[in-house]
Design a protein that fits this description.
By secondary structure, the chain is of the alpha/beta class. It has 10 helices and 7 strands.
Length: about 290
């Protein structure tokens, strides 16, 4: 059943909004007369349910383990009769893409609910939480600032961040009915998503698939670095790759940055085997989204 990805700055009110969604869905399910709706349940996954302390975001290794724990919990929970609310920072584009692929692989819709609380408001709330001994919450100042700096805001123009619902801080509730309609629908039947070659979980059947995945992505990186070498001082250009175009950002992209994006793409697609003919298309799209 549907996956709802909650995303926002630290101390933006993600769990509060998630609890509002849980209450709405449970009320909607209880009041329903249709058997396929009444059998649904809601699974709310966050750091607290996973037993994670906020200090895990201080170090790269512990943060990676925390994301792995959330990923595994979401993957286990996704099923025919469960609405999964992944209430976490979910601030990395690639991680949201990975969860989107898991939802699509089991033929269920997903959406992103972006908690649009301004940074200064989040900073104020975080300070209040740290100073209140009766409340559990808040991030140490260095962790808070680092997470805000690294936050990659959802973009509704990408497949994995759409449909995107932004909840302003001033709004009393999220757009309940819009989320329900996007994921469950009001047409008497549950919405079903058809998986494609990029998301169906299957082993790489083509014997040289991993070789081609490595080779094609490296060729594209070489082309980008070659373009930047030939256009020193120019930024925001377009690298033509035959029928494909990589739109570079307004600042120069370093080789380590490109290699990090490439490793992320390869990691995501080792198991979600693409057809070889789709590797170039998909990597170019992934690069353009990462740069955007």
């Amino acid at each position: 059943m549907p996956l709802i990805l909650i995303s926002g700055y630290p101390s933006s009110g993600k769990t509060h909004r998630s609890n509002q969604l849980v209450d709405f869905f449970q009320t909607k399910i209880t009041a329903a007369t249709e058997p396929h709706i009444r059998r649904l349940n809601v699974n709310h996954i966050n750091d607290q349910t996973l037993g994670l302390n906020r200090d895990v975001y201080r170090e790269a290794r512990s943060e990676k383990d925390a994301r792995a724990a959330e990923y595994s919990a979401v993957k286990r929970a996704l099923g025919r009769d469960t609405i999964v609310i992944a209430d976490g920072l979910n601030y990395i584009k690639g991680f949201r893409y990975q969860l989107y692929c898991e939802a699509k692989a089991v033929q269920t819709p997903s959406c992103v609910v972006h908690i649009g609380t301004p940074i200064e408001t989040c900073r104020k709330i975080n300070a209040e939480l740290l100073n209140d001994s009766e409340q559990e919450g808040g991030y140490q100042d260095d962790i808070f600032e680092n997470l805000v700096y690294r936050y990659e805001e959802p973009n509704g123009m990408t497949r994995w961040d759409s449909p995107l619902f932004t909840v302003p801080h001033e709004d009393a509730t999220p757009p309940f009915e819009n989320v329900w309609d996007a994921l469950i629908g009001n047409e008497g039947g549950l919405k079903k998503v058809q998986p494609n070659q990029a998301t169906v979980m299957k082993p790489a059947t083509e014997s040289d698939y991993l070789y081609e995945l490595d080779k094609i992505t490296q060729e594209i990186l070489n082309a980008i670095m070659g373009w930047q070498k030939d256009h020193i001082g120019e930024v925001g250009g377009q690298v033509s790759l035959g029928s494909h175009t990589v739109a570079l950002p307004a600042s120069s992209v370093s080789l380590p940055q490109l290699q990090r994006i490439r490793r992320q793409f390869i990691s995501l697609n080792r198991q979600h085997s693409l057809a070889k003919s789709r590797i170039r298309d998909s990597f170019v799209e992934f690069l353009n989204s990462s740069f955007g």
